[in-house]
Every structure is written in structure tokens, then in C-alpha cells.
Design goal:
By secondary structure, the chain is of the alpha/beta class. Helix 6 crosses helix 9. The N and C termini lie far apart (42 Å).
């Protein structure tokens, strides 16, 4: 029996939301044949070489002291590439995480970009197509599909990636799979249209955009 190609679910935690902030945790979950393969889970805490904002600490609880003893991004980036290369990579509010990962590679003087090594799929955008006008945060989706997220007292990259994988499996099960595929096609078409009209924006504008997206997601 030929197995499906793995699909990946990724989440990050950061020191804050601006362009000068850094990643402090990466979590990755892989699914094969609609089964979460726990042995393929990937989690790493990172030393950001800067302080964590109080607002970010309140979200994930990762302290400066704890992070100061963790590896730096350059020591794990090749491992991360090997795990996501060629996969469909599902991320909730993908623009946020992708921007942070791309900046980490740029700081190392590398031309690596997430979208050059994986097919990025934004589950938040897809959920908004499926459930317009409804709350589509990760917590809201877990509640909608009866997925227990009561242990999510703090955000964690691996925990959130695991929950996202469960949400995806629930959202694409049975009759909803057809609707999800339609939403995915609609989202990919809109991505293509946006790419045609893409322009360069400043770091300041990007920071304002990411802050607005984070505020919108929190309000949801």
C-alpha cells in the first residue's frame, strides 16, 4: 500500500511581534495517511539573544533565563529544512510565522525562504472561507470540533501544532473534506492574485501589519 506524502503543521513562539523580535520556540507535527505520527514531532526552544517582551511572556511563559541556555537558530535550521522540505506546510495565520522564519534565515545571510522549500497553507484563511463571520482562532476551532484544548493554559509551539493537526483532520473528515478542498483552492487562487500585485513594503509597515493581524487574531 502506497502511503500519502507527509503533511506538516508548524507553529512558533516569539519574543514579541515586531520585525526586531526573534523566535523562541518551534513546534512541528507531521501527519501520514491522516494519522499524527508522534515519533516525527519536532520541538526546539531557541536562544533569541534578546529579552522577551512582557506581553509575549504572558502568552507563552518562556523566561529570559530559560531561553539563555537554549541553542541558537543557526544550529537547528538545517534540521528544520530537512523536515519541511517538499511538504504541504499548514500554519494558522501563516504570514506571522513565515515572516519570523524568513528573517531568521536572513540574519544568517542565507537566501532560504519558507515558501521556497514548502507549500505553505494558511489554515486561518481557509477556515474563514468555510466559516465566514465566525470566530476562527485555534481555540474557537477546537471548540467547534470538540477537540480538548483545556490544557492550553499557555501557548506552546508544539502543543499548538498538535491541536492544529487535529483541527485539520476534523475539518477535512467526511463530507467537509470537499468543502475544505474548495476553500483551499479559493485561498490558493487569492494567493496567486496577491502575488501578481505584490510590492515591497518597509519593515515599519510590515511590523504594523503583523501587529494588526495579531490583535485581530486575539480579538477572535
Amino acid at each position: 500500500m502506497i502511503q500519502d506524502q507527509p503533511i506538516s503543521f508548524l507553529d512558533t513562539e516569539t519574543t514579541g511581534i515586531g520585525p526586531l523580535h526573534r523566535i523562541v520556540e518551534i513546534g512541528l507535527v507531521q501527519v501520514i495517511d491522516r494519522t499524527i505520527i508522534e515519533s516525527l514531532n519536532f520541538q526546539v526552544y531557541l536562544n533569541p539573544d534578546r529579552a522577551v517582551d512582557e506581553s509575549a511572556y504572558a502568552v507563552h511563559g518562556l523566561s529570559d533565563d530559560f531561553l539563555s541556555n537554549q541553542p541558537r537558530f543557526e544550529s537547528i535550521e538545517s534540521d528544520l529544512i530537512n523536515r519541511i522540505q517538499g511538504t504541504d506546510l499548514y500554519i494558522h495565520n501563516a504570514a506571522f510565522d513565515v515572516a519570523f522564519l524568513d528573517r531568521e534565515w536572513a540574519r544568517l545571510g542565507l537566501k532560504t525562504r519558507v515558501e521556497s522549500i514548502a507549500q505553505v497553507k494558511d489554515t486561518l484563511a481557509m477556515a474563514r472561507v468555510l466559516y465566514p463571520g465566525q470566530k476562527n482562532s485555534l481555540d474557537a476551532l477546537c471548540k467547534r470540533f470538540g477537540i480538548d484544548s483545556s490544557h492550553r493554559t499557555l501557548h506552546g509551539a508544539l502543543l499548538d501544532a498538535q491541536l492544529l493537526a487535529q483541527v485539520y483532520l476534523a475539518m477535512t473528515s467526511g463530507q467537509e473534506e470537499l468543502y475544505f478542498q474548495t476553500a483551499q483552492s479559493t485561498y490558493q487562487s487569492s494567493q496567486h492574485d496577491c502575488y501578481i500585485h505584490r510590492v515591497q513594503i518597509s519593515d515599519e509597515d510590515q511590523a504594523k501589519h503583523l501587529e494588526m493581524m495579531a490583535q485581530l487574531e486575539q480579538s477572535n
